[in-house]
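Q: My collaborator sent me two sequences in one message, no labels, and asked for predicted structures for both. Can we handle them in order? The first one she listed is below.
A: Yes, handling them in the order given. First sequence, followed by its structure tokens:
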Amino acid sequence: MVRNKIDFNKVIVDLSLACLVICSFLLRTSFGDWFSSTHHIGELVKHEVKYLSSLDKFTEHETQNTSQEVLEELQRLTSNRGKISKIAVADLTKYLSNPINLYKTIQRYSIQWREVGRLLESCKHKKGFAVDFPKLTKKFPDHIDMTGAQRSLLRIQRVYRIPTDDLMKGIIKGNGALESLKGEDAFLIGQLAKKEFYYNQCVAWLDKALEQHRPESNYAVEKVVDVLSFCEAKRGNLRRATELLKQNTKVTTLSSRLALRDRLNKVRTQWLISYLRLYGMDEENNETKVYERHCRGQTIKRKSNNNLKCSFHNGWKNPRLLIQPIKAEELCDSPHVVRFYDVLSERDNEEIKRLAAPLMFRSAVTGHDGAVNENPMERVGKNAWLHNSISPVVDNFMTRVADITGLNVEADDYLQVANYGIGGHFDPHIDETGENKNIMERRIATFLTYFSDVEYGGNTPFVYQEVVAEPIKGSAIFWYDIFTDGSADERTEHAACPVVLGNKWAGNLWITFGHQTFTKQCSLNKTAHEYRIF
């Protein structure tokens, strides 16, 4: 008996320490932020194995102090998770590359693991894990993350035209997820599609919800039919909308008949509104259509880009590049966009990601008016700002950028490192928008570095230039954001395509006019000309 008591106390200590290890990590991530970083979702996956082990030990030693009902519910919530979690951790890179795996991880934490915390908190004699774990669940992914993850799946499907059936099965370009989506998932995603006016997607997902409905499902057929008929009417299919309601509504009394008539009238009203708008504005603007076409790889080659070349660039005889010049490839002639290869070594590449990982927070967007949106839908990702003093690796990277571009980067001592989440993207934008800024503070050029390869998606398209740069680890693309007169070059409008398969890391160094007195003097000619890289 004494030995058993000692073992039990040791378990309590171990479980408490396990919770404390992750506590500091969780406190750095605010609500609604988990889905926006693949790296942080990976941390959840790794810690899930520890939670399962701790929970097994807890249920084993707490049989006398915890009701059988609670123990059975705990086992039900975590059944079959151990094997899947071990497979995921064994090849974490592969697991994180599939968006359905990421979605299911967010779902487990926002539903099952939060419920585990609630059950542990209800225990009468709480010790160790039962005390610490419920506190941690307050920082777990929640409904905001679930909505963000569902919106990301809709974005991936819409941009890349992925069949709903493939997403349900979790198979994208031969990359299969460890788990598939269920009817409940299809219902929730379809509801969100309706809310955000994507009626074709709404119908596709709700059809799957009807197909997979079972007696034990936690969503009602009547609710699915209501939303589905609405979306069918909105996209002009009045016949099916009315048929759905008639087939799935039991008419046994006068009140039920009146209720059906009311629902049919609402559907007909939505169909009429949709019909009247057929000759109005498009659902999406032209810029979005062009951007999504580029993401799908439907780029049309421009004649002006027929004479592009590859070369070795020595930074205008820079001493550090004379012996080993850098490989350069022109991507666009006007505006001049160039890709440089082998910008940094594999070791430095990984070190920069390591430094950035614990400092990341949700990526914000600054509008033309200077207002900052800290949770934008047009940008899904997290970023960290690394000062050149944080590590010799970052300082050496800054020096290398200066050598390659011939520009002075002393005033630009922060490197922005970004990690994208589920369907992580950034809508079309230009990097220099500050017409009212002091010219010395304005961005003259962008040096965009890729710290990872991406299996599918994540390209950088220049929207109106028919130019798309795919993420190539260790390479960087460079362009000037302004003309010689200081005005913004709007031809450089670019975007980050949604990531489908893979874990995208990228870094931005925006070079300003500050300290460019001897590199890029202000033009005395009022006529605007574009800068050339070489």
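Q: And the one she listed second?
A: Here it is, processed independently of the first:
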Amino acid sequence: MIGRGGGVTRLKQHLAGGYPDVSNCPKVSQEVRRAMKEELDGKKALKYKQQRERELVDSRSSKEPIYDEMEGRGEVPNDEDFLAALNASRTQYDYEQNMQHRSCSGASGSGSTTASTLGRSASTRITSTQGGIGRFFTSMGRRRAVDIADIDPLAFPDQASKQTRIDDAYSKEKKKSIGKSIAKFFHFNHIPPNAANNTYYRSMVSNIQKSGPGIQPPTAYEIAGPYLDEQVEEIKTWILSCKKQWSLYGVTLMCDGWTGPTRMSIINFLLYCNRKVIFHKSIDATTDYHDAPYIFRLMDSVVHEIGAEHIVQVITDNGANFKRAGEILEQRYQTLFWTPCAAHCIDLMMADIGKLDIVKKVVKKGQSLTKFIYNHHWVHGLMRKFINGEILRPGATRFATHFLLLKSLNQKKVGLKAMFSSEDWEASRYSNTTEGKEVQKIIMSVRFWDYIADILIAVEPLYVVLRKVDMDKKPQMGNVYCLIHEAKEEIKRRLQLPTKYQHYIDIITKRWDDQMGKPIHLAGTYFLMITNF
């Protein structure tokens, strides 16, 4: 059947036909032949795409930085604020040029790092019929998210160090020897294999290739001592460059509470400015009572450290103590806003939906059947046989996880029904137990699955909003009003009848009006509209 070799790929080639080193199957249908051909072509295209992405990463270090000092000016008057913004950009550009050409092992780094940090791409001045601030925002263009190269130009390998492909330069035996040596270092030090996808791994290999033989590797002392100290100083220098932009762009102060497994309570303060987040400090609040006055004192002290004139907004979670502390802070400082966390607000909407009687009953039944399955090894093994996988059992840290459980059950619906109607189940001792009969009754209930479908239909649009506002890649303040409005309209469209959707809409509206009706969100929406139109 197969000319030489073997494996799944050659079997697919045998079925697809048209490969010189593999014989064609004379009995395969045209439909199967076409499917195998599409599968092989898709893998070939994916491999080509991955190769192009690797080449793009390497090419970043060889490109000259793009800096257009006219970018973003549009028709804005030549005032002092705008000139200050332009000078700040130039200052950051000069700093990052110095970072790019610094070297303790020969300069290597991404030549496009500066352009990345400034959020610029190769661009020309945009002409528009709009005037004033609308034209200014349009000409700025869209900015991409910050990546590691924006902090450290050495994160990517230097193009100059790129050598001949190892397949061409060495024999397969030599390549295998190198691969085994690197793999042993990973395996014996418990390093996850996907660490090889890190840009610093490729940069390290690139520098070793460029340096050639005879260079001694750094010792443990050097890694934990001088080199670590240098990294710390570089990060401190980078943070200072970010602080210079506070007066220009303003700062968002983020306050986040966290309780560890030992019940140690930590309150973290982070600073966001111009698409960059900086850790400011942590406070051990384990022995303190977290009432509104205490939270206010903490936030007030951080505001003094940063400077109230730099802070635009303070973001916290939606707890009553943080809300009251934020309101007091707004009263003391008239120039800043307290803003509750949008992701936490949506999470609380889902918690309120979870308190509805019908939702609570369905979630409880779903939890009981997963508990039964995973508490009995034989039943668990039978389930794996029928659904070919696992039921998602997310932790109880967020209210949205209940709906992930229902979604996972709905996806495994056919397999679970087949399992509890199989001869293996009927012949087992578990089918005669009270708990087993109750679980089987739940699985075979048409109403149970109908309720799950309705809940998922209603909650999925809200979950999509949660995913968007909780992501780090793109700021969502300007979009959050539109996203909530679109979610409510989508729920109405899906459920159609007011008797089905109205209680969901009421919950979303009440939570939003109570917590998220802030002027700063409206301002973000307004500027987004100017940018788009």
